[in-house]
Amino acid sequence: MTPCRIALSLIVFSILPSIAFCHTSREPADSLNYPKKEKASVFEKSFRPSEYDTDIHLKTKNGGDTSQLIVVPLDTFAIAQPETVQGYRVQVVATNNFDEATAARNLLSSALPNLWVYMVYDAPTYKIRVGDYLNRSDANLSLDSLAAMGYKEAWIVPDRVIKNPPPKPIVSSPADSVQIKQ
Q1: In a domain, 169, yes or no
Q2: 85-118, pLDDT tens digit by residue?
Q3: Of 30, 82, 130, 155, whose Cβ has the fewest other Cβ atoms within 10 Å?
Q4: What is the pTM of this model?
């Protein structure tokens, strides 16, 4: 054998084992076993957020616990977001006259500062309704007080009401009714 043939056979025999053991695979190149791809619904069913809740304690720069030092008034906490649910309102007026309905709404809004007053237009009728009651017994108490105010023909109607309504804003008197002393 010539030296060229010996060198060539050494090269072939050194490359041959690496070519023989090289093969393609459908598995990942590394040795990790990846989880099967599953639908998100499988994970959503097993997810429990309460397992991840943790208590939060505030610390000062000197390391002291401030949880006993901070006094937060109750009205600063977040109020539940309003949502509509099936409930009851007291219908006070039903009229075809827009001006009459607006006057009744304004009168009731000023007479009942803690209750929301709604005007519903159901063609051709304007309906003035009061309150957001989740049960009929609460609406009945309001009906009695409205009857005492002179609205004898008021009645309870089922309606979509606001659960956790925001507080009613305070309406100030118009500027022309305010007298300025000099």
Answers
A1: no
A2: 999 999 999 999 999 999 999 999 999 988 999 9
A3: 30
A4: 0.50
